[in-house]
Amino acid sequence: MLKSIKESPLYHIANPRSIAFFGASNNISSMGTTQLMSLKALGFEGTVYPIHPKEEQVQDLKAYRSVMDLPDTPDLAVIVLPTSIVPQILEECGNKGIRHAIVVSGGFKEVGGHGVDLETEIVEIAEKYSIRFLGPNCIGVSNPHHKLNTTFFPDEGSPGFIGLASQSGSFVTQMFDYLSRLSLGFSTAFSVGNEANLDIVDCMEYLGACPHTKVIALYIEGIKRGRAFFETARAIIPHKPIVALYVGGSETGKRAGLSHTGALAGPDLLYDGVFRQSGIIRAHSVTELFDFSWVLGSLPTPRGNKVVIQTHSGGPGAAAADSCGSVGLELPALSKETLEKLAPFVPHTGSINNPVDLTYTKNPLDYFSGIPKVLLEENNADILLMYFLMPSHTVRLSLEQMDFPKDQVIEQTTRLISAQVESIARLLETYGKPFVGYTFRSLEEQFTRELLERGVPVFPDPERAAQAIKALVKYADLREKS
């Protein structure tokens, strides 16, 4: 592992103070223009030098005819130009003293033929000038903590804790909104493209040393440096979890990867073995990749695999129990002490087995404080899985029945819901046990939205929740053995 993140060849690519931007113009339909717009939209605080042979200004920035005309040497060059002139531009960057680049341009190894020769040429130029570059055929990097986004989609989410290295460029951009809806975000996300100079192993080393990254997610179509990949993962796992999605296992996946980035995929079982032996947790879908990353980056490590379920009613509880059982999680019986503590909260119609099915509570607010507190104190349980149901209209109707002034009902509803969210968040912080939610209601309801914003994972079904908990348990086992 790196002793310092600044030792990484990716450091100045992900944290540049100044950028020479090739390929942006005032024509909003060009890809380079779109990428410069994304960079500006996130509020990049460094200096940007558009390089354009004709324009004096590009997007209100002073433009320069050549990189040699720049008043100083930028940390990074972003190149979005026709494939044929990329070697010449990279040579000029080398002469200017630029030592880091992102080659967005496609049409290299992934298309075969002359593209292979062009990729060899830019690799040789980079070696000549000691340039380290991402790509070609990539979209670069998004580092919201540095207000950097070189992709063609604006990143409107908040800086987060998921570090991504992806062999698909657009995959990075598609996830901006996906993660934002879960109140998640990237720490840094790399698109590696053809990996002609820097590869996914370099990204893993960077993210392993990144202080903003709590979990590393990998989107893989093929691994070039197998031993380095294995050894790097093994070094990171004791300190930080890694989740990987491999998409080249099938024949159709293989063909897609080859035409996409020129990646040579291997048999699915081979990658399964590599992940297992290196301590990487394997995801089998995009949803799992980020579900697993979500809980691994936001929840404490459990002591074991024993889950206690709290629910309002039998159906959601039975569904959760079945989901937990299907992935090998245990549902322990509650201790005598816990049963005694629960007794004041649970009506005679409820069930205090596991799942704890309350049907209804004498005081509805106990569901969000007193009852989960008791279950988190259960020594025979390692994880609490809780069904959430608190629709705003139900709270509003209850307050109206209590003769609250009509002009205060909406405000009081909001306050009451926020208070229960605060109660749940405090329990998570106090007890140091994983606390996972699930609901069949919309994740956009106020109660669930605020839980997500406070860092409580809430899944839209118990199956996803159980699989995520299983990943959490698996990482605990891996870390103990490492």
What report would you give on this structure?
By secondary structure, the protein is of the alpha/beta class. The chain has helices at 11-14, 31-41, 86-96, 114-129, 169-180, 200-209, 226-236, 251-261, 268-278, 286-298, 314-326, 336-342, 370-376, 392-401, 406-431, 446-453, 462-481, and strands spanning 18-22, 47-51, 57-58, 61-62, 76-79, 100-103, 132-134, 140-143, 148-149, 162-166, 186-191, 215-220, 242-246, 281-283, 307-311, 356-357, 383-387, 435-438, 458-459. Helices cover 42% and strands 15% of the residues. The strands form four sheets. A seven-stranded mixed β-sheet has the order 9-8-11-10-12-13-14, with helices on both faces. A five-stranded parallel β-sheet has the order 2-1-5-6-7, covered by helices on one side. Strands 16-15-17-18-19 form a five-stranded parallel β-sheet, sandwiched between helices. Helix 11 runs parallel beside helix 17 (462-481).
What is the strand and helix layout of this fold?
Elements lengths: L10 H4 L3 E5 L8 H11 L5 E5 L5 E2 L2 E2 L13 E4 L6 H11 L3 E4 L10 H16 L2 E3 L5 E4 L4 E2 L12 E5 L2 H12 L5 E6 L8 H10 L5 E6 L5 H11 L5 E5 L4 H11 L6 H11 L2 E3 L2 H13 L8 E5 L2 H13 L9 H7 L13 E2 L12 H7 L6 E5 L4 H10 L4 H26 L3 E4 L7 H8 L4 E2 L2 H20 L1
Parallel strand pairs: 1-2, 1-5, 5-6, 6-7, 10-11, 10-12, 12-13, 13-14, 15-16, 15-17, 17-18, 18-19
Antiparallel strand pairs: 3-4, 8-9, 8-11
